Amino acid sequence: MTTRRDFLQNTVALAGGMALSAVVQAKESNKQAPNLDKLTDESGKYVLLPLPYAYDALEPVIDARTVELHYNFHHKPAVAAANNAEDALAKAREANNFTLVKHYEKELALGLSSHILHTLYWGNLSAVGGNPAGGLLKALEKHFGSYNKFKAHMTAATISVEGAGWGVLGYLPASEKLMVLQCENHQKLTAWGIIPLLVLDVWEHAYYLKYQNRRAEYVNNLFGIINWNSVAERFDWAVR
Asked: In what order do the strands lie in the sheet with 195-201?
């Protein structure tokens, strides 16, 4: 006859086994995460990864000087800002002095979001270009009607971002949907839980040397250098 103690012991053992299984599965999933999600070094500090190509690799769509300035004078400072904000918040906890907590939380949100999006942006681009295929293409057709309808939606949303920001294609596991979003600055208008797959930068520093105020021309040209293999890799990982 099963006693209450036996029942509790069995329940705890079962829960422990399920928890262990979940941890193992999470570790296996993390092993398969796209390399472009690497944001930190061995110590946990945010780090600027080398570009996956030379400065001039994206010409003529994006000129070498723009890539050089963008990477060194916009992405790199964002990494430093995220680290500085985390250091300041750690000091605030040690001193139990949160006078500037609002300031540094904003700095962390802006700097870290910029680091994340820029890291994705570099990986999302390639001189090879091409078109989506396989499971990603089927998903785009399912959620947007066709690739051309997705492209029209993504282009319009990106071009019309108010001020500075990004166009984002993301996957929301909770609804199993692909979504197009606008992102103002680096951290506004996002949706909680969405996994970004493709991001298009429309801060002026991303295009102004070549395109001046012709944002639409820049965005339309970006579709000729999208690394759809990178987007597909992120999509396959996200749906798992």
From this structure: 177-184, 165-172, 195-201
CATH label, 134-239, candidates 3.20.20.450, 1.10.10.410, 3.40.630.10, 3.55.40.20: 3.55.40.20
Q: What is the pLDDT of residues 127-165, one digit of tens each?
A: 888 999 999 999 999 999 999 999 999 999 999 999 999
Topology (CATH level 3) of domain 60-124: Helix Hairpins (1.10.287)
Strand partners, 85: none
pLDDT for res 36: 52
Q: Which residues contact 187 (CB under 8 A, 6 or more apart)?
A: 109, 110, 113
Widest CA span in the chain = 80
The model carries a pTM of: 0.84
Look up residue 210 and give its two tokens.
Answer: 């070549």
- What is the distance between the alpha carbons of residues 135 and 236, in angstroms, rounded to a whole number? 8
- Would you tell me how many other CB atoms lie within 10 Å of the CB of residue 192? 6
- DSSP code of 226? B
Which candidate, 195, 199, 198, places its Cα nearest to that of 238?
195
Integer Cα distance of 65 and 67 in angstroms = 5
Give the number of other CB atoms < 10 A from CB of residue 9: 11
pLDDT-above-90 percentage for the chain: 80
Where do the structural domains in the chain lie, given as residue ranges? 60-124, 134-239
Contact indicator for 107, 84 with CB cutoff of 8 Å: yes
